[in-house]
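batch_manifest entry 22 of 60
target: Pyridoxal 5'-phosphate synthase
source organism: Streptomyces griseofuscus
requested by: lab member K.T.
priority: normal
notes from requester: please return tokens only, no post-processing; we will run our own comparison against the previous entry in this batch. if the run fails, retry once and flag.
--- input ---
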Amino acid sequence: MAQNDLHALLLTQRVWSPEVTRLPPFDPETAPPTPLPLFTSWFAEAVDAGQPEPHTMTLATVDAEGRPDARIVMLHGADPDGWSFATHTTSRKGRALDAHPYAALTFYWPVLGRQVRVRGPVAAAPEEESQADLHARSTGALAAALTGHQSEELASADELRRASAAAWDRARENPALPAPTWTLYRLRPDTVEFFQGAADRAHVRLEYRSTGFGWSRGLLWP
Ligand SMILES: Cc1cc2nc3c(=O)[nH]c(=O)nc-3n(C[C@H](O)[C@H](O)[C@H](O)COP(=O)(O)O)c2cc1C
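--- output ---
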């Protein structure tokens, strides 16, 4: 596609068209004093509104050289200990988290014009907990974890097909097989920001800030 076509196409695109998006009012005065209940209710509302894959999020990290990177991962849970996700310690993001154990998560739920941003230090869960979390998931999740080598250079698509087929066999034969580098991480938030889009663009941004003992809250200009 020529550059001009792309530019023209971009100009035809809209965010929050009324056919796909409902923009609920959000009064920050009525928000709970801590971010977790609000996240939980916004997540349930995204599910109810038919948001595809609401449990996927962007995980942003910073590597040893101070360079940022970001990719999609799945949310495994959110509770008073933090927001959790799982990956290989040996992957690019795993190595970045080793160098800088601090990350940002971003959720985008366009059916409701909502974004949630969570930032804070990240810690790996104990080995047994990581493996239990993996074994509670699907055979495909275990097969993918057992395939391993995440982020390493791949010589050919054939090599992956063979490794993946062998991993599926092992996962089916032994659903309790450990995937040693697969690790559950928890991000304990310093800040959690809730963004509610508004048709007149006077969007609401409510940021919760951890004080170490509890939470303070404030609005941000959109
Ligand atoms: C919808 C979706 C969900 C994903 N979930 C995960 C996940 O939970 N864990 C994971 O390690 N990679 C997941 N990935 C793959 C990552 O986006 C990424 O390609 C991979 O983890 C390698 O990233 P890295 O090289 O930055 O470490 C997912 C990708 C997509 C598109």
